[in-house]
Amino acid sequence: MSQLVVATSNPGKLREMQVYFTDSRWELTLKPEELEIKETGTTFLANACLKASQVAQAVRKWAIADDSGLEVQALNGAPGLNSARYAKTDSDRINRLLQELGDEPNRNAQFVCAVAIAEPDGSIALQTVGTCQGEILYAPRGTGGFGYDPIFYVPEQGMTFAEMPPEVKQQVSHRGQAFAALLPQLKNL
Ligand code: ITT
Q1: What is the pTM of this model?
Q2: Which domain CATH number covers 161?
């Protein structure tokens, strides 16, 4: 087994990422808690690379990072890169978003997920981006997942991310799309 350090402090992300590595040759471990990386990039991909690279260099091991967020069309792409910092808790973030959107009829939104894997010297070995299109509901629905899941409705599934069984979200989500592109390449490393 090869060790892969996960550069995240978000337990929801960690839980979802672990599933993609079931039956792989990689053993996931969590980054040291005190290691905080400043997300100074201007794109999801830049921030994923920054987190993977800096954590890899700090622990001298392979590292993986996910930088993700929700882009709402009528809010000019907000909360976007600022998704984690939009408010203090998941429910505060959801409430702020619903308030900002008000009764705006254009509810189109997309989740974006960039994933980067860095070698122990910090150089980027793999990077991918996945997206998932949906609509922002007027009120939360469902109890699964994390973050903005209860207000993100995917028309093809007829459910919010929070209403989907975990294996369905794993497949259709932005993270699912990013990992579908990443995993075949990971085999070649
Ligand atoms: P790390 O940087 O430590 O990984 P973070 O939560 O700060 O954790 P990001 O900067 O990438 O991560 O912010 C992503 C935010 O976008 C996250 O906190 C959620 O609010 C939201 N988000 C990302 N993926 C999501 C998903 O699958 N479902 C719901 N919300 C999601």
Answers
A1: 0.97
A2: 3.90.950.10
Residue-number span of the structural domain to which 47 is assigned: 2-186
Nearest CA to ligand 1 atom 7: 84
Q: What is the dihedral of CA 70, 71, 72, 78, to 10 degrees?
A: 100
Q: What is the pLDDT of residues 17-56, one digit of tens each?
A: 999 999 899 999 999 999 999 999 999 999 999 999 999 9
Phi-psi region of 105 (alpha: psi -120 to 50; beta: other; left: phi over 0): alpha
The number of domains in the chain is 1
State whether the beta carbon of 163 lies less than 6 angstroms from ligand 1. Answer: no
Q: What is the end-to-end Cα distance of the chain in Å, rounded?
A: 13
pLDDT digits (tens, 9 = 90+) for 140-183: 999 999 999 999 999 999 999 999 999 999 999 999 999 999 99
